[in-house]
Amino acid sequence: MQAFRRDGHAFVARLRAAERPVLLDVVDGVVDLFGNVPEPGDDLDPFSRITMTIEDVPPPQDPALHRLLPDASRDPQLAGELRRYTEGELRISKVAKLRRLRVAIEQAEPDLVVVPSEAADVAAALTDVRLVLGSRLGLETDEQAEALDELVADPDDPADDADATRRFLASVYLVLTELQDGLLRLMLADLPEEAPPAPPTGGRHRR
After folding, report:
1. Is the peptide bond before 110 cis (omega within 30 degrees of 0)?
2. pLDDT digits (tens, 9 = 90+) for 28-63
3. Comparing C-alpha atoms, which of 4, 7, 39 is closest to residue 123?
4. Could you read off the pLDDT of 64-109 as tens digits, one per residue?
């Protein structure tokens, strides 16, 4: 993989042939975590986007999904009440961004092309996929994330299937991290420079 670079009016990254189907499978797996979520083009009653249950909504049991849909309050009762009104819309928003990322990956032959107007959504989707992989890998600290480079580069054969799976997930996590970092750098470079502060006026009387 080659990290994102600017190409005309778009951001472009080069994917290897073997990386494209793997990334598609990983994105599909994250989408599946959210369950049955409407497609972006579905004609929905706006009120159907709000979870109108009588009881508060409990947090997700899957730790990875809980990272994507964290509690909005330390108070369990308040957190459940907030989920009741906000979680449905949040699921729709996150899945729409993941589907946009999937389209970009699916169309990468071999270049993954992202236009600036959609870059924030793609970056957000990459974050969510990395959060899920990080949960599966048990990453809790920056040091643990940095150790993944050594794990992937280990010349020894995996000790067992669990070790092989961990190395595979780690390699995908690192690819997604490089994609996200490169995209964010380009997005930051596109931000307008801050205007210099205006000179003070009326601070002193002229003589």
Report:
1. yes
2. 999 999 988 876 555 445 555 554 555 667 888 999
3. 4
4. 999 999 999 998 888 888 888 888 889 999 999 999 999 999 999 8
**Which of 47, 49, 86 lies closest to 69 in space, CA to CA?**
86
Q: Which residues pair with 11 in a beta bridge?
A: 6, 114
Q: Are 181 and 3 in contact (CB under 8 A)?
A: yes
Residue 31's nearest CA partner among 23, 42, 41 is: 23
In order, the DSSP letters of the chain are -EEEEEETTEEEEEPPTTHHHHHHHHHHHHHHHT-S---TT----GGGGS---SSPPPPPSSHHHHHHS--S-SSHHHHHHHHHHHHHHHHHHHHHHHHHHHHHHHT-SSEEEE-HHHHHHHHHHHHHHHHHHHHHHT--SHHHHHTHHHHHH--SPPSSHHHHHHHHHHHHHHHHHHHHHHHHHHHHHTSPPPPPPPPP-SSS---
Contact in structure between 111 and 13 (CB atoms under 8 Å): yes
As a whole number of angstroms, the distance between CA 18 and CA 77 comes to: 46
Q: Which of 86, 92, 114 is nearest to 9 (CA)?
A: 114
